[in-house]
Amino acid sequence: MAAKKPERMTLIMSIVERGCGAKLHKLYRENQVFISLRCEGSGTATSEIMDILGLGSSEKDILISTAPVSTARALLERLDDDLRGAVPGSGIAFTIPLTAVNNLLAAFINLTTKTDRDSGGDTDMENSVKSSLILVTVNQGFTDVVMDTARKAGARGGTIIRARWAGDESFAQSRGFTHLQAEKEMIFIVVPKEIRAAVMEAINRKHGLQNEAGAMVSAVGIEQLVHLG
């Protein structure tokens, strides 16, 4: 009898108010999501806009987790139903499909997670994708102008993480990317897939690699999305 094929893995990205990450991590473990990384970020909205929208603090905890797709789907469905309000404050959680993952990690996750292989959790969700995650990497200090461009193209807001350029500087210079700096900021922007291309094009046109902001823009589809709080 042939062994069952390991279930496809997915990435769960959760953005909540600062201080809520530990409780969210505990909640995820209780729901069979055992592998997570936690980091800190900040929101791009002004305090006035955040007060109007009820978005709470601009300082954010970001939880990046890996789980079988059926486990992730069940978790987000619970977060949108009986677990709504279980984490204080407000936030967002969404899943991103993984095209590959380390075999040992996948085996460990599948062994430690009680999944229902007959639940249809590993089906192709391509046709149900309604949102996209746009990832913009810019030189430090340019997030405000980039987000202003993104909002004019239809985006509502984003989350920022500090980073540092680790690429080959000689390669960048040989391609004429003279504005690349070591200190970077990464902006995560979630948008409906209908406006993804317009937002990316606007950012690239005004702030791309040939411009002072040195923006590098990419995007991935989001399988499932829920608002927390």
Care to describe what's here?
The longest helix is centred in the C-terminal third of the chain and has 15 residues, at 193-207. The radius of gyration is 19 Å and the shape is globular. It has helices at residues 21-30, 47-53, 69-79, 103-112, 143-152, 169-174, 193-207; strands at 9-17, 35-43, 59-68, 91-97, 131-139, 159-164, 183-192, 216-222, 224-228. The protein has a nine-stranded antiparallel sheet with strand order 8-5-7-6-2-3-1-4-9. 30% of the residues lie in helices and 31% in strands. Helix 5 (143-152) packs across helix 7 (193-207). The chain is of the alpha+beta class.
List the helices and strands and how they pair.
Layout: E1 9-17, H1 21-30, E2 35-43, H2 47-53, E3 59-68, H3 69-79, E4 91-97, H4 103-112, E5 131-139, H5 143-152, E6 159-164, H6 169-174, E7 183-192, H7 193-207, E8 216-222, E9 224-228
Helix pairs in contact: 5-7
- Helical content class: 25-40%
Could you spell the SSE succession in H and E letters?
A: EHEHEHEHEHEHEHEE
| Number of E strands | 9
Q: What's the overall geometry?
A: globular
Low-confidence segments: 49-56, 117-123
Radius of gyration, in angstroms, nearest whole number: 19 Å
Mean pLDDT over the residues = 81
Describe the largest sheet: 9 strands, antiparallel
